[in-house]
Amino acid sequence: MTATEQTRGGRRAAFGFIFASSVMNAISFGIMIPILPNLVKMFTGGDTAAASEWNVVFAVTWGVMQFVIGPILGMLSDRFGRRPVLLLSIFGLGVDFLFMAVAPTLSWLLVGRILNGMTAASFSTANAYVADVTPPEQRAKVFGWMGSAFSFGFLIGPVLGGWLGDISLAMPDPVIAGHTFDMALRLPFFVAASLTLVNFLYGLFVLPESLPLEKRAVRFDWKKANPVGSLRLLRSHPDLLGLAAVLFLFQLAHTVLPSIFVLYTGYRYNWSPGFMGLTMGITGVLGIVVSIFLVSPVVKRIGERGALLTGAFFGAAGFAIYGFAPDTIWYLAGTPVFALMGLMTPGLMGLMSRRVQPQEQGQLQGASQSLQGIASILGPMVFGLIFAWSIRHEAFHVPGLAIFVAAGLLALAFVIGLGVARPLPSAEPKLA
Questions:
Q1: What digits encode the pLDDT tens for the residues 111-139?
Q2: What does the DSSP 8-state code read for residue 137?
Q3: Structural domains present in the chain
Q4: Is-contact 153 29, C-beta < 8 A?
Q5: Helices 256-269 and 385-392 sit at what angle, rounded to 10 degrees?
Q6: Phi and psi dihedrals of 253, rounded to 5?
């Protein structure tokens, strides 16, 4: 076997672990999607609007932690390698799920979200890992595969979460320290914690490091590790700031469904947790089809720019259908359109990763995570409060209003992308 073949084999093995790790983490996230809002709703006495407002508090807290801690983790991965940061992130997720599994009050749930926000760099660090082991010209395709990891997780996770919630209805509810724990709302979190911690142990013994010593940052720079400093990177390379604006609009729009999906579909269509999980599963299947079978040929035919613009267009159209849908049939009819939004992220991340050096990939992901943090702060406030307002006021009763706003954000991302999504040569950029 030649050295080149060995290198390619090592890349495939490394990516295989990262892909499997991302799938397991996405499954863990997916499990709690049909359950967490209902757990919050239980603590609020069944008030849907109040539950939406508490979800805003949780999401904003998580976003603040992402905004502050994300750049630090990104710089740590550039300085000390991806492996320790990735393992820390996965372990943090496991602890968070355990907190939610045993939380007797909303305050306990809030502590869990703080811990999760401080350590939730698993996906962004995984992207930096992928950039380390993938040639620039192949990154859009591989980022597409990473997108399919999310889809696999959200195919299996919500279905599993809904199923666990349904079967645990027959289980006795334990009483611990004077608190009765509803197993239908707790068991999925124990399963999510178990999956995540098994993933941590697997990585602890198997995961290799992707960033060689000679390509690491020389020192840990606090000026670049703070949120403002990390965002300066986005101004230091051609078109990177504009692409970051497109990324932020995508991230902001993408928070609408995690913020209101369960409450929105329960309120408007009277869906059960099991049916919500099934719907997410259908969306996951379509996302897998797009990520695995469409990203590569689309990028080959119309480039990373074309993939980005196509994804933004169909994402806006899909959101518009979701907001309009008067019944379940209409909503489900929008899922194939919405699934094509999966073309957007691979094209966008491919363009952005070409514009920075290997020792800046973690910093780029840290900046991206800061943007995600800002989106996670603004999105739930904007969408959650818009949804609560739209269902409380009979004079302007438009339950899908928040989703229409998300469609408008993606339409704006499409317009900006027309100007800034210019391709670069496959070679890595030179330092300024």
A1: 877 877 777 656 677 778 887 888 877 87
A2: G
A3: 3-205+224-420 (1.20.1250.20)
A4: yes
A5: 20
A6: -60, -35
